[in-house]
Amino acid sequence: MIGKIQHIYALTERGAKDLVKATLWTVAANLSLMLPVGLLIMALQDIIDALMSGGDPAAEIWSITALGAGLLVLIYIVHWFQYKALYIATYIESANRRIGLGEKLRQLPLSFFGQRDLSDLTATMMSDCSALEQAFSHFVPQLWGTIISTVLIAIGMLTMDWRMGLAVLWVLPVAFLLTAGSRWLQDRFGTRNFLAKRAATDSLQELLETVKDIKACNQKEKYLHGLDEKMDEAERATVRSELVTGTCVTSAQAFLKLGLATTVLVGVNLLVGGSLELATLLIYLIAASRLYDPISTTLANMAAVFSSQIKIQRMREIEQQPVQTGAKSYTLKNYDIAFDRVKFAYDQREGVLADVSFTARQGEVTALVGPSGGGKSTAAKLAARFWDVDGGRITLGGVDVSTVEPEALLKNYAIVFQDVVLFRDTVMENIRLGRRDASDQEVLAAARAAQCDTFVQKMPEGYQTMIGENGATLSGGERQRISIARALLKNAPVILLDEATASLDVENESAVQAALSGLVQDKTVLIIAHRMRTVMGADKVVVLVGGKVAEMGCPEDLVKKGGIFAHMVALQTQSQSWSLPGSTKERP
Ligand SMILES: Nc1ncnc2c1ncn2[C@@H]1O[C@H](COP(=O)(O)OP(=O)(O)OP(=O)(O)O)[C@@H](O)[C@H]1O
C-alpha cells in the first residue's frame, strides 16, 4: 500500500508512511470531537432521569465536569499528535522533495534542460512544492481522515437507529458524488488556470532577464502589451476556475444542510409515533451538526486536492527522467581525448555533428576552428559528457566517456565557457569554486595568474567584495578572468577553453595566455578560438564545417595547403585593417 501511495502522490517512502500516520491521527481527531456529544448525552440522560425520579439534577455535576475536563485533555493530546503528524512530517517531506528534485536535476543530462523551460522548472521546484506542501498539510490527510471517520461514525449511527442514521447520512454520498462528478470540470478549468498562470510567470521572468535587449530594440511597448495580455488571461482563467469550483462546492455544501432538515422531520415523526425517545433525537441532531462540519470543509478542499494532481504529475515527470550513470572508478591510460566517428543531434531532426573523428593529445594544444554554428562548442561539451553521443564514441585515455559517471569524469576537466556563470558570493569564493579545498593563498595565486588582481584591488573590499547576481556588476573581460582563475585553480589534466579570452583586450589577453601556457604543460588542451593569433600557437587545428571535419593538421601546414583554414586566416588579416566607412580614418 505504501508503494501505491508513493506512486499516486509522488512521495518518498517516509512521506507515504507519514501520510498514513497523519490520516490515522485525523481519524482519531475527528472521532475525538464526537466524544463531547456522548458526554452531553450522558449528562442530559442523568438530568432527565433525576427530574423524572424527583432527585437532584445537580448531583452528578462533579463527575460530569471531571469527565469533561478529562475529555478536553484527551482531545488536546489527540490534536497535538495530529498536528505533529500533519505539519512537521509534511515539512520534512517537502524539504526532502525539494532536495530530491535538486539531486535529480543535478544528475540529469543537459539535453533535459534544453527541452524544458527553465522558469517552468523553477516554478515546479518552488511554487509547486509549496502548493503540495499545503495540500499535504491541510487537505489530503483531512480528506482521507474525514472519509474514514465518517464511515465509522455512520456505522455507529446506523447500528444505533438505522432510520435516524439514514435521515442524517443520505446527503453524504450525494454531496460527495456532486463534488467528485464535477471533477472533470474542475480539472479542465484548473489545468487551464495553471497553464495561464505559468505562461504569465514565464513571460515575466523572460522580461526581467531580457529587459536590456528589449529596451535596446525599442520593443518595450510591444513586449509589455504581450505580457499584459498574458496577465489578463491568467486573471480570467483564475476567475473562471474559481467560479466553477465555487459553484460545485457550494452546491454540495448546500445539499449537505438538507440533512439537518430530514433529521428533524424524520425524528419528530418517529417521536410523535412513539418509536423514538427525545434523548435519541437530540443525540442525532447534535451528532449531525458535528458530522457535517468537517465534511463541509473537506468538500471545499477537494478542489485543491484535484488541482494538486497536475503538480504531482509534473514532479513525477522530472523524477522519471533517465539520469546519466556510469562507473565511479576507472583507469585511464593517458589523457588523450579521441573522437571516433561521432554523430550527435540536439533534437532528432537536425544533426549537429556527423562522423567526426580526431584526437586531442595529452601535452598538445588542439584548436577547434570553423564558421559559426559548425559544432565546435558542441564537440567540446560532448568531450566532457554534457550530452551522450548518438553514434560513434568519445574516449578519454581509452575509456569511453559514456561509461563513466559524469561527476567522476568531470574531475579531470577544467572548463572555461564563453558564457561565464558567477554566483552571488565574494570574488574569493567565486574563484574557489574551481577547487573547494584550495587555501586563500592558492586562490590568490590563481587570481594573479589570470590577471584578476588589477580590477579586484580596485573593488571596495578586494577579494571579499560580493559580486551581484551572475556578476552583473563586472565587465565581460573581468568575468572571463575570474572564470580562467577558477580553471587555473582546478589545475585539471584536461582543459577545455571555449572562447576563453574572447572578451579580453590585447594586453590582458597576452598576459592571460602566458598564464595559460604555464598551466597547459603536459595537459590535454582543447581550445575554441576565433582569433587566429591564438589558433596559430596550437599544435593541431581541426576545422569543423557544418558538423564535419573539413581539415586537420598543424596550423602552418594548413596555411600552406591554402584551404578553408588558410582562407580564414587571410580573411582575419584583411579584417584587421578594416575601418567603418564613416570613420575619421576614411575621411579625407
Ligand atoms: N543547446 C542547444 N540546443 C539545440 N541546438 C543547439 C544547442 N546548442 C547549439 N545548438 C545548435 O547546434 C549547432 C552548433 O552549435 P555550436 O554552438 O556547437 O557551434 P559553434 O561552432 O561553437 O558556433 P559559434 O562559433 O558561433 O560558437 C548550431 O546550429 C546551434 O544552433
Helix- and strand-based class? alpha/beta
Per DSSP E runs of 2 or more residues, the count of β-strands stands at 10
Could you describe the largest sheet, including whether it forms a barrel?
Answer: 6 strands, mixed
Question: Could you name the ranges where pLDDT drops below 50 across 5 or more consecutive residues?
Answer: 583-588
The CATH superfamily of the largest domain bears the name ABC transporter type 1, transmembrane domain
Count of domain modules: 3
Q: Looking at the structure, what is the overall shape?
A: elongated
- CATH class wording of the largest domain: Mainly Alpha
Known CATH architecture of the largest domain = Up-down Bundle
Mean pLDDT over the residues? 84
User: And the CATH topology of the largest domain?
Assistant: ABC transporter transmembrane region fold
Ligand set: adenosine-5'-triphosphate
Helix content: 55-70%
Q: Please, how many helices?
A: 21
The value of Rg in angstroms is: 36 Å
Membrane topology: Multi-pass membrane protein
Subcellular location: Cell membrane
Transmembrane segments: 22-41, 61-81, 143-160, 166-185, 264-287
Main location: membrane
